[in-house]
Amino acid sequence: MIRVLHLYPRELGINGDVGNVLALRRRAQWRGMPLEVSDHHPGQSLPVSVHLVHIGSGPVSGQEAVRDDVAAIAPVLREWAAAGIPFLAIAAGWQLLGRELVALDGTVHEGAGVFPSRATLTTDRRVGEVVADTDWGSIAGFENHGAVTELLDGGAPFARVVRREGPGPVEEGVVTGPSIGTNLHGPLLPMNPVIADRLLAVAAGLAGVRMGPDDDRIRQVDDRAARSRDAIRARLR
Questions:
Q1: What pLDDT was estimated at residue 237?
Q2: φ and ψ of 40, to 5 deg
């Protein structure tokens, strides 16, 4: 059984990021792979074992609502990451799982330390569609965040992003081992199934589950995702 842990779906579930978990669930189901999702809310105990962790995005108020719980579970999250369990962290969730988060008033909050990154919140926002190149292929998505994030030792950029305005391509996100932190919504995994399958394959290997073959449903949704990416590329030309 592949066990996926979804951190704070109520507080950090905007911008459609819950669709990442749905994509993992459906792609496993269509391949005949057993997968279960457990939600984690503040104050709850973590499962004994997981094979993949997801955390979505949300407003500053959402971050503040879960910050104490993140600090409480951070040692376990770091142990999981060190053991090779993949994390997918989106925008505000990525900021919380980095090493530091600097608030608008300059207060420095210690992060969970899963990702070697430091985020500084700003009053400026990046909002709009993007296309990007990654080591796993070309992807597309939507960004909506107000932070500047720098990578520290031990991390590599996730993507090289092209935006409608401004210089490009520019580096975005972070990859460390099998884990990804990024500002890209869309949601990311339904829009870019190559990333979904990469994460699912790692989780399946940890769970001792065979990666099943594609079927017509996967081919259909992948075709729709490709057309969505093509539409974004056309709008950005």
A1: 82
A2: -115, 125
